[in-house]
Amino acid sequence: MEQPNPSSLSSPASPTSPLSELVAVRRQKLQAIRDLGIDPFGGLFESTGTVAEVRDGFEEGRCVSLAGRITAYRDMGKSRFLDLSDMGGRMQVYVNAKEVDETSLAVSAQLDIGDFIGVEGECFTTRTGESSIKVRSLKILSKSLRPLPDKWHGVQDPETRYRQRYLDLIANPSSRAIFLQRSAIVREIRRFLDERGFLEVETPMMQAVPGGAAAEPFKTHHNALGMDFFLRIAPELYLKRLLVAGFPKVFELNRSFRNEGISRRHNPEFTMLEAYWAYADFQLMSVLVEELVCHLAVMLGNKDHQVHHRDGEGNVTKTINLSRPWKRASYNELIEAAVPGWFSFDKAGKIARCAELKLDISHCPEEFEMTQHVFEKLVEEKTIDPCFVTHVPKELVPLARLNDADPSKVDVYELIINGQEISPGYSELNDPDLQRERLEHQAGEEQQKIDTEFLEALEYGMPPAGGIGIGIDRLVMLLTGAESIREVILFPHLKQRIQSASSNT
RNA sequence: GGGUUGAUAGCUCAAUGGUAGAGCAGUACCCUUUUAAGGUAUUGGUUCUGGGUUCGAGUCCCAGUCAACCCA
């Protein structure tokens, strides 16, 4: 490890800045602890359990040990109350001058909010009825050298919350809750799929030809091979190779990367679930997704399948009803319902109707693009409860299997919830010649963008299959009520700030 | 890429163009069951950066940086 330069730890730009004074005071306490012959950055501490576990096993007089971070400090002279916190909660500990050993008492005089400590003592209930630990001995495990955010207001500034997520997680319980829920969701998806016989696999994130979606990739370079690679925009073409290999049910739940805009709903790296099921079709996949999402909602405590989104004050702003069965409707039918007579208009009529509806279609030269714009604005954005959109025009989804009865449509669904696309599902195309034709058409001039090794694999024979993709970030937004993707990604991408010489500012 | 809004103490926020304030945190003292502990006193500011207008700018104007939101 690189040794920190001591001069960079104070603030050379402004050695007398208020922050550096606060840091200096903490460093004095650090030294005072060292002067007691104690290492303020301790090692192993064996605790009875987490805060929640100690709380669960609370029994008057029981001896326990507990480690955590000090999040509040109430000094009453000869006795002190500390709040010890971890991810799962808060436990009050009581330090009485008469009841702790001398060293612990001396250390306890040098503590600050933010320090990690370990205590040993017995469970007792205070006069006000709070389960607490009466400390016999106390050990400092890590001295915090910088002041923590306001204990009551937490961190409000979104920039600080994203750049220094650790502060957000320390200070804001609502943020902690989102990431604990995200973790639970991901864990439960894996369990759910495992239970149904799906095999989790890992396929390349660095690909010579980025396929499986239409998106701008990130480029990188492998020195030893002397060749460029792309970060994957989707795992699809490798998962399909595994269908060729004979795995009947596979999934991958991991990161993909798209070199496109950043917004409330887009992060350049995002987490996606893709699952493929041999001999199934898009209808079967839609049932699987429906079961999965409902299962997750119930797991998170939405027993009535109602997911409530709330504002800052906790008032319900939106309720999403996930009760099954979910609505299924064809693309054309939904558009007809939104704009009656839409498909009876010719091109000029459609342009006129869009003008009346105040829809800007200047970027839509083709009729199907106008229709798609109407769909996005008047159907998708207004669909809150789940809806599987089926019988999508083939122009919009060039890689899917054509519908047997109506070859102008493809056998896919687009699942819309809360005004955004959550998951597409396909009956996968397994005709290698047709697939090649479609990819060549899609690539146009840029034939090098075609993954020919994938096409070769298809020629060995891929079973018919159903496939799905689910944007995990958006799914977490949906289930936790987060309004921005940055609220559900621990370290969202922001523009780099110019590094100042001082690490204290 | 375009538009709107914002950046003030470690944190959360105030401040008609006229002496930059409060709460929390910090520091000192009091207090042996407090819990957003309490009481008394107190430290702390390059008002994001750079220009400009003005007798005087946190405040008005211009440019830039970063962020949030909306649009493309």
Task: Write structural notes for this entry.
With about 500 residues, this protein is of the alpha+beta class. The chain folds into two domains: about 130 residues, Nucleic acid-binding proteins (OB fold (Dihydrolipoamide Acetyltransferase, E2P), Beta Barrel), CATH 2.40.50; about 260 residues, BirA Bifunctional Protein, domain 2 (2-Layer Sandwich), CATH 3.30.930. About 30% of the residues lie in helices and about 25% in strands. The chain is built from 15 helices and 18 strands. Strands 6-10-11-18-17-16-15-14 form an eight-stranded mixed sheet, with helices on both faces. It has a five-stranded mixed beta barrel with strand order 1-2-3-5-4. A three-stranded antiparallel sheet has the order 7-9-8, with no helix packed on it. Helix 13 packs antiparallel against helix 14. It is elongated and about 90 Å long. The two termini are about 25 Å apart. The N terminus and C terminus are likely disordered. The structure holds one RNA strand of 72 nucleotides.
Topology:
Layout: H1 6-9, H2 18-35, H3 51-56, E1 63-75, E2 79-86, E3 89-96, H4 102-108, E4 116-125, E5 131-142, H5 158-163, H6 165-171, H7 173-195, E6 199-200, E7 206-207, E8 219-222, E9 227-231, H8 236-245, E10 249-257, E11 269-278, H9 282-299, E12 306-310, E13 316-321, E14 327-330, H10 331-338, H11 347-356, H12 367-379, E15 387-393, E16 409-417, E17 420-427, H13 432-443, H14 452-459, E18 465-471, H15 472-480
The chain binds one RNA strand of 72 nucleotides through residues 14, 16-19, 21-23, 25-26, 72, 74-81, 83, 92, 94, 96-98, 112-113, 124-128, 130, 132, 146-160, 162, 167, 171, 264, 360, 363, 484, 494-495, 497-498.
